[in-house]
Design brief:
The chain is α/β, with parallel strands linked by helices. Helix content is 37%, strand content 24%. It is built from 9 helices and 13 strands. The protein has a 6-stranded mixed sheet, sandwiched between helices. It has a 5-stranded mixed sheet with strand order 9-6-10-5-11. The longest helix is centred in the first third of the chain and has 19 residues. The protein is globular, with a radius of gyration of 21 Å. It comes from Bradyrhizobium hipponense.
Length: 260
């Protein structure tokens, strides 16, 4: 009769001990899919002794500054070209430790059903950071709307446009403000997380959509000094699970694509 209560007590103590010894890390994410995916990662990581606290940032600038300063231990919001650009410009000692998902960027319009319908001299808004603005220009080049200088790499700017048959006017806006620009332009390039926040369907609504293959897969980043710590492997392994992949595929229905 005394065995069962003793077993219950032992189980409770073991659970309490695991909770007491769990390592807590703060991860910076942008609202929307990145935050939602990490909510699915949290219970998996918790079973491995890693307590994840999510800190949401409303833009693409602060998460790397916060990581570099040590205010958070990791972030999940960016791709490699963007991280490389931030490191070159700001000297951050930050490294990618695992790939996450891909968000094909889309061009949306409230005024036109096809990009070809945009009139000569039409306004097109693009993100004002070099990486996301550049990927939109590459998208437009690939679709035949403009031509760019040879050798522009992943970060062309409007100054690299060599041919612009429709004389499109490019308006650079903060990526987070792109949905608001829709009323004022003929078309707006909007990152998937901001599109979903604005109620847009990133699969059905774009009049142009980026090829999901390419260099723009998102990643988990940590400080270079932390990259070999055990919790980093635990974090990446928790993300790269079949459960998280199934969550991404079911939740986002093709708007967000797993990269593992």
């Amino acid at each position: 009769m005394s065995f069962r209560p003793a077993l219950i007590i032992a189980t409770v103590l073991a659970a309490w001990s695991a909770a007491a010894t769990a390592e807590t890390i703060k991860i910076g994410v942008t609202p929307g899919p990145h935050a939602q995916i990490f909510e699915a990662v949290k219970p998996i990581a918790a079973k491995q002794g890693l307590d994840i606290q999510l800190i949401e940032f409303s833009d693409y600038v602060v998460p790397n500054a916060a990581l570099d300063a040590g205010d958070i231990q990791a972030n999940s919001f960016q791709n490699q070209p963007y991280l490389d650009n931030q490191k070159a410009d700001r000297g951050y000692k930050i490294e990618a430790v695992g790939l996450t998902v891909n968000f094909p960027i889309g061009v949306y319009s409230k005024k036109h059903k096809a990009f070809a319908d945009i009139p000569d001299g039409g306004k097109v808004s693009i993100p004002n950071d070099p990486t996301n603005g550049g990927r939109v220009l590459l998208l437009l080049r690939d679709k035949g709307a403009i031509k760019l200088k040879d050798g522009v790499g992943f970060k062309p700017t409007v100054l690299d446009i060599t041919e612009n048959p429709k004389k499109l006017k490019f308006v650079e806006v903060d990526a987070a403000q792109a949905p608001r620009a829709l009323d004022d332009v003929d078309a707006a390039a909007i990152n998937t997380n901001y599109a979903t926040q604005a109620g847009l369907d990133p699969v059905k609504d774009p009049i142009l959509r980026e090829d999901p293959k390419g260099p723009y897969v998102n990643l988990i980043a940590v400080r270079a000094a932390d990259k070999d710590k055990p919790w980093v492997k635990t974090l990446v392994d928790a993300y790269h699970t079949p459960e998280v992949k199934e969550f991404v595929l079911t939740k986002f229905k093709g708007a967000v694509l797993p990269s593992w």
